[in-house]
Design goal:
The chain is of the alpha/beta class and 935 residues long. The protein folds into four domains: 67 residues; 219 residues, Rossmann fold, CATH 3.40.50.300; 296 residues, P-loop containing nucleotide triphosphate hydrolases (Rossmann fold); 227 residues, 3-Layer(aba) Sandwich (Rossmann fold), CATH 3.40.50.300. Helix content is 35%, strand content 19%. The protein is built from 21 helices and 33 strands. A hairpin with a 7-residue loop joins β1 and β2. The N and C termini lie far apart (184 Å). It binds adenosine-5'-triphosphate. The site of adenosine-5'-triphosphate has 16 residues, from α7. InterPro entries: FtsK/SpoIIIE/SftA, FtsK_dom, P-loop_NTPase. Keywords: ATP-binding, Cell cycle, Cell division, Nucleotide-binding. This is Cell division protein FtsK. One of its GO terms (biological process) is cell division.
Length: 935
Amino acid sequence: MPDVRTQLVDRVRTMLSHALGASRSRLAAARTELGSAEERLRRIRDAATRVPARVGAERDRRIADLADRYGAEITRLAARAADAATREAPGAAGTDWQGWRPTPVVRGEAPGPLRIGTVHLPGSVPVPALVPLLDAGHVHLSGADRAGSDAVVAALLLRSLGRADPGSVRLVGYDPEHLGGGLAGFAPLSTAGLLTFVGPGGLARLLDDLVDQIRRINETVLAGEYASLRELAAATGRRPEPWRVAVLLGGDELSRHERGQLDRVARTGAACGVHLVVRGIALPDEPDVHRAVVDGDGARLDTCPDLLVRPDPAPPAHLVTETCREVATRVNAGPPPTPFTDLLPPLDEMWREDSAVSLVAPIGDGPQGRPVTLTLGDYPPHALIGGPSGTGKTNLIFAWIGSLASRYSPAELEFYLLDFKEGVSFARFAQGRRDPSWLPHMRLVGINVNTDREFGLALLRFLAEELRRRADAAKRHEVTKLSELRAVDPTGRWPRIVAVVDEFQMLLAGRDAVAREAADLLEDLARRGRSQGIHLVLASQDVRGIEALWGRPALVAQFTLRIALPKALRILAERNDAAQVLPRHHAIVNAESGMAEGNQVARIPAASDWGTWSDLQHRLWRMRPPDAAPARLFDGDAIPRLDEAPDFVALRPAGEPVPARAGDRAAGGAIWPEGVGPEHTAPPTGADRPGGPERTTGGARGPVALLGEIIDVQARSAGLRLPRAPGRNLAVLGTGVDEACAVLDAAARSLRRQHRPGTARFSIACLDPDADTAARALYEALGTDAAWYSEDDIGELMAETANGLGSGSAPGEPHYLLLYAVDAAAGQLGTSVGGRSGLDHLRHVLHNGPERRTHTLAWWRGVARMRVDLGGPASRTDQIGAWVALDVQGAELTSALYPGAGGGPDWYPRPWRGLFFDRSVHRTGQVIIPYGPSR
Ligand SMILES: Nc1ncnc2c1ncn2[C@@H]1O[C@H](COP(=O)(O)OP(=O)(O)OP(=O)(O)O)[C@@H](O)[C@H]1O
């Protein structure tokens, strides 16, 4: 049994040892597994410890990246915002105080918002913080920083002033706590009425006034046509009302009335340019109210409350006062003129108007910015302009002419212009040396006519003639007025005529024949011109000018259109004083004969300065019709030249045809001097002017001696015919050496042109050393046809000439004796040789010469001296058929020399003028301007 036991033990042992072995190997395996698990754990742990550092680095990298991008974006956006703000608030609206200056908005530009400070973002340029005020809204300030909000108020006001034309921002201050101290720097504005302070009890009145302004502007200025002044300004380019800014700085609790009015202003003011800048008083929540809270750390605007604004420092005190002083000075100096271009139609509408019924043109702006127009037609037909010197009459005439000339073509409208005062500003309407342009409508310009009333008379005669022509045409067509004539004769040329006479009272001055005839002609033109399209515009600075008219109520009654410049007297009706309180550059326009109810106030643009005017004139000149000729310019201060005189240029020897002269000359070509009196006038343009182009000279009617230019609407020459007839001699009378020489010189040179060389004799005797140079120059110019005599041989000349006349023999070649200061030869001519003295010979030549083609053109230095030479006071004078009086009084030219009633002519001697009288053709004397020395 032991074996069994043993066997059993062995088996158990074996089993145990197996089990042990198995356990051991399982343990080993487990250990191995544990080891590798631990190894894995360690690796995992190792790996795990490395992960957060990498992720963090990535996160940080990404955050840094984002921050960079965000920063760049902020910088970019801030730069753009700063640019946009600078554009929105340019110049005075946004620049720093250093270098700040006013930059008023240009026409049509909106004032835009105003800068009060800057927003600073890290790493970016400062961005201007803007607040809308003018034309946009109201500003309400609050917050603890009192000084900061004072700086904002000052900045807003100064920038507003700087963005507007002087005078177009008006401030009202209500500062009950500091009694205006907060606005002290702006005080200089009050001298121009641009700043008013309202006392502590005055808020209600101030608000009432603002509400009234708003109501008035809505009713009469915007008038339902525009929603706001801003819209009106954008559409018309004009701003008829100033901006009104009320600065309200605290005070007591508002009454119900005040509160109601303030709310109304806040609600409706901005559209009418009425604005509030308020601190210490609540404003209602309205869309136009913009708020800024100014605290110690900066300001916050309601438009972007998250951004902190750093307010600008207050503007330097000297900048505020200097700016305000400058603005006040400019306002006190008068309003800036409105631009002349406001009066003109758009370019494509120039010359489009029809003048059949009337001429209508704007002359300036009315108080509401609407144009004020002037009309000339059947009613009102004529205008009277008045105002003291320097108040703008000339400028107004330029403005009116420009406004008309840009609307009506030269076929619709013609101007004739006469200026009796000294000055040349109207000369620019005619062609000049410096500027070749002229105003195509202008037919005649007379300047410096102050002493030449004859020229005014000539214009009136010309207009009277034109009136007759029109009336005849109307009669032929069985109509009565211009509009009807134009309808029945559509191809006829019937422009309306506007004749402007500045300082017209000169024409009516005195009690002589010129004044009488001028007044009669004026009256006739005023009465009948209305229906024939001839309109008179008379201007005067002198109350006496108007009074000259007042004596003729029938004449005055025709001038229903009155234009009164500031301080004009007697232009408007008796109790109408409106002109007395008129600001500079304004006019009262009144088409009701000056009755107060017809008053219209107009602001007149500056039109007369060279640059402004010439722009328009050049434009119209380029539009002129191809056959347009420049206006005739008569300058009373200019001395005409013989070699430029059309009549001189046209002279030819007998038998040679005279070429056609149409268009020769500005005013329509020269007129052949026919020796007719000054009462003869002809239109400066038009086909019916006298004098055919194919006339020959020096023919049966004899050669003609040109003596000077006639004072008339054409540049005609005064001519003395020298046919073979008794008395065809000329006496030049007076002591004016230069004038006398000029008359003889022109006479001789013009005669010389009518004879072929060698066919006429010119004998020149000069007895006044002062005339020697001129006489010798003539002698040289006449060449071999001339002979020279002095006091030594003048006796011989006279004897030889007298003897050569021999009675009954055939006339020889023409012989002209040119005797300078012949009275000085009395000694030499007084001595008798063979029973006859030189004076006897002279008288014989004067009597008998002309029929033998021997004409004497002699200068005596006085009428009495001539009478002595002719044989004494009782001697006959009919051998002197024509004379030119220089410094000789009319009374000396008695009936012996000047036949006709009433003694001598109305002649008041004046420099470089002569009175020409040819007894064979003239009824009255003819004033001439001697030609200047020939070249
Ligand atoms: N509406 C205006 N706007 C701006 N300047 C003006 C205006 N009217 C006149 N002026 C200026 O005032 C000055 C005087 O004007 P103007 O010569 O027209 O006056 P006047 O009444 O004709 O004077 P006078 O009778 O002495 O000739 C000129 O320098 C002119 O340019």
